[in-house]
Amino acid sequence: MILVILDHDGSHLRKGALEAIARARQLSSLGNLAGLVIGENLGAVAEEARNYLPTVYTAEVGSYTPERWAAAAYAAVQKSGAQVVVVASSRQSRTWTARLALKMNAALLEDTLESSTDGSRVLASRYSFLNRVTEKQAAHLPVVLTAKPNTTPPAEPQGQGGIEALTVEQPGAQVEVLERVAEQKKGVSLSEATVVVTGGRGLGSAEAFAGVEALASVLGGAVGATRAVVDAGWRPYGEQVGQTGKTVQPSVYIALGVSGAVQHQAGMNKSKYIVAVNKDAEAPIFKITDYGVVGDVHQVLPALLEAAKKLKD
Amino acid sequence: MKFIAVLRQVPDNEAKLKIEGGQVSLGGVTLILDGMDEWAVEEVIRLKEAHGGEAVVMALGPERFEEALRTALAMGADRAVHLVAEGYVDPISQAQHLAETIREEAPTLVFTGGQQADWDSQALGPALAEALGWPVVTWTTQLELEGETQAKAKHDLDEGAELVRVPLPAVFTSQQGLNEPRYPTLPGIMKAKKKELRKVPLSVQSKVEVLEQTIQERQRLNQVIDGSKDPVAAANQLIRLLHEEAKVI
Hints:
Chain B: It holds the Pfam family ETF. Chain B: Belongs to the ETF beta-subunit/FixA family. Chain B: InterPro entries: ETF_a/b_N (IPR014730), ETF_b (IPR012255), ETF_beta_N (IPR033948), Rossmann-like_a/b/a_fold (IPR014729). Chain B: It comes from Meiothermus granaticius NBRC 107808. Chain B: GO terms for molecular function: electron transfer activity. The complex is a heterodimer. Chain A is of the alpha/beta class. In chain A, strands 5-9-4-1-2-3-10 form a seven-stranded parallel beta sheet, sandwiched between helices. Chain A starts with a strand and ends with a helix. By secondary structure, chain B is of the alpha/beta class. Chain B folds into two domains: about 200 residues, HUPs (Rossmann fold), CATH 3.40.50; about 30 residues, no CATH class. In chain B, helix 2 packs across helix 5 and helix 3 crosses helix 4. The radius of gyration of chain B is 22 Å and the shape is globular. Classes of the chains: A alpha/beta, B alpha/beta. Strand 11 of chain A pairs antiparallel with strand 11 of chain B, so a sheet runs across the interface.
């Protein structure tokens, strides 16, 4: 059995969940598929999930903690006898899937780009060494696998499955959430965006990000920021791209006023196309760009916005 | 109280990596204490300075990891435990072995890096927590002990952050903003040579096999447009290229 754990926002499955289902289907020679949704008030997402999977388990465990999610996932593994678990990769899932892998005494294949099977093992490729090296890994079952966002075409609906509620024992020592500082996110999430527009220190001020936001919005993309910008308090940490921020791999990454330190490159160097606007022709970012404009970002950005608006009209 | 940091030795960020025989070759590469692990080491030293007790550093890895452990001792850790195992050992297997040694030490808490720069894995901290049966707080930016049995911490989520109270013992992983690590001083380096560094040879079966490593640098077009004289024309040309040539917008 292959268990897919489905990420959702409370009312809908996220794109990552559909990609995870597609990944699980690629491994279907290893067993039948089942899905699991974890959280609270799961009726709507379970209904959506049954359009993709023959069995959907629900685990009503309340709000997120890594301990609860790992316990719910393990309950579904025991119930279904799953030997393979597939989950969309995110910071949160990479926390609780590590707990799950240990519970299962399973191999963990983290943040994989693609995955397959040779009949007895799961094979996967992933990045390592700060995103600079691509490595092929292999592991015998049981395996827990997380799938990097935007690496697999989302699954299409298929059949009509049944829904089964699971009973999950609450884990012992747990983290108690005192306060959650949710960042107000407009538009698409950074990790899933196919267009990312990132501003760097070269923009000069927090106010200059109005142009970055406008360009991202016109192109249907997400806003990113460099560490310098986040440290300066111009943008929230959740937008940081790089070694200690998010890793993104959009179709096009537009870097505005970004010099391109190695730590920043670690978060974006696998983007399909890289575009940079910087007044310094010697900036390291130009070594990895497809299209670059050497010029003043304060003049180029408004012109880019105008041209993009015209294109989208 | 006892505070443990678990660390790795990794190539320097700026190091040029080479592939030999399908594997990353570290010959001639500067190897350092991992940057995120360095935050973890700094934090356990600060905790020990503030609350008393002992700061212990620990690693599971090849002989060469000793240098990184010595760096941590030179920063101010009191002693080190090195589980010596050559070759790649995946984080889940590492956690299972490290947990045995950690359990014997019975610490107040364990700290490790949020993601180490060699294996790009975020699993070691949470896997250790599971092996020990403790809660985990990942991507920690602030930590404050409230006596010996609980702590308050702030940590990053995928979007936003959380303030949590966590019963101890627990495992924490580090994030940028946690602290500014100190540099080892010369007296610190001299003292570190005499500090206890216990080696435990280990034979570990990795659950994951690394079949092949490659460096696939994408060939970039490197097409540069001069936007210094006519920024509007440059912007128009760029949008046209992205739409017509790259077809990404």
